[in-house]
Amino acid sequence: MREFSFFMPTKLVFGQDVVKKAGAGLALGKKALIVTGRSSARLSGALDDVLEALSGEYVLFDRVENNPTGENCQEGAELARRENCDYIIAIGGGSPLDAAKVMAVLAVNEKSPLELYAQGWEKKPLPIVAIPTTAGTGSEVTPYAVLTIHEEETKKGLGGPDLFPAVAYLDPRYTASLPLQVTIDTAVDALSHLVEGYLSNRASSASDLAALQGIAVWGGVIPALRSGDISLQVREDLLLASMLGGITIAQTGTTFVHALGYPLTYFHDYPHGRANGIFMASYLEFTHAHAPERVEMVLELLDLPSLNAFRELMNELFADYVGKLHVPEERIRAYAEKAAQTKNVSYSRGTPSVEELTEILKENIL
């Protein structure tokens, strides 16, 4: 007998010029804290569109780090309090969107960032307008924010139902300025969300609807990713797949791919999607023993004939990086032990042991 719940309160507006068309409706209050990174919001044209459409007051925080910390989020929250901002507009990739969610909490709760992990929060965060400029994280439709936690030497997710943005505006034009490698890195991030969500032991009939549709859409852009010929239509498909990946993991969470990828980002400065891509073939091989029909469905939707063909695809997309990372064996064991303590591993079919995680790490980065 099936039992599941599905909660996705974010209003989605998808298409070209959706921010311009929103006009005065873009505002969720009287004064906005606009949260961005240092350059992507401007280069993409998204910031200009927001400022053109916005009728109320605003203050700009454009200092979000590539892998934001709690301190970085506290800085933005303090600006929001000083300026009496009553909502947030987040523009960028996963880092600005995730940081904005934490700023929204800290702006109205007298807590340190680390206290949010241990104690949660009492007051409802400021409402958020999310405008992605990459097609990878799907953060515009998730209740998660991932921060770099130096005290624990890792990246760590914070979650809560009121971290869902109130509204998300998705315009594929905002991803057109991305370099090819960033497009690939973020695309594989989206694929990892779709695949991990579909293969998670928390998957349901409802989450599968988004996951399967997203995997099929992603499969259609493989030739373009291989050739590097990224048209606006391809970018639209990638943005749709990313959004569907976010909707999926909002229900299922992620699996051990993410748990193994975090050390590569924290210690070796690998972009998140690339770190995930390093392990995805091994993940599918491991999961095939526990859910063969589901893994075969993934391959069918991607139009790939075998698990080996999937590995070849990842090797091709990351040709300049495969086999280039060499980690001492003792550190690999430490990475596996830390990964084994995460919820990501418990959500994985087969629940791999420390020994199995160690072998997967060795296979890909030793």
Structure in words:
This protein is α/β, with parallel strands linked by helices and 366 residues long. It folds into two domains: 11-174, Rossmann fold (3-Layer(aba) Sandwich); 180-365, Dehydroquinate synthase-like, alpha domain (Up-down Bundle). It has helices at 18-22, 40-44, 46-53, 70-82, 94-106, 113-119, 180-199, 205-220, 222-227, 232-252, 256-268, 272-288, 292-301, 307-317, 329-340, 343-346, 354-365, and strands at residues 11-14, 31-35, 57-61, 87-92, 128-132, 144-149, 154-159, 167-170. Strand 6 (144-149) and strand 7 (154-159) form a beta hairpin. The longest helix has 21 residues, at 232-252. It is globular.
Write the SSE topology.
Elements: E1 11-14, H1 18-22, E2 31-35, H2 40-44, H3 46-53, E3 57-61, H4 70-82, E4 87-92, H5 94-106, H6 113-119, E5 128-132, E6 144-149, E7 154-159, E8 167-170, H7 180-199, H8 205-220, H9 222-227, H10 232-252, H11 256-268, H12 272-288, H13 292-301, H14 307-317, H15 329-340, H16 343-346, H17 354-365
Parallel strand pairs: 1-8, 2-3, 2-4, 4-5, 5-8
Antiparallel strand pairs: 6-7
Helix pairs in contact: 4-5, 7-8, 7-10, 7-12, 8-10, 11-12, 11-15, 12-13, 12-14, 12-17, 15-17
List keywords for this structure.
366 residues; alpha/beta; Rossmann fold; Dehydroquinate synthase-like, alpha domain; 2 domains; two-stranded antiparallel sheet; 11% strand
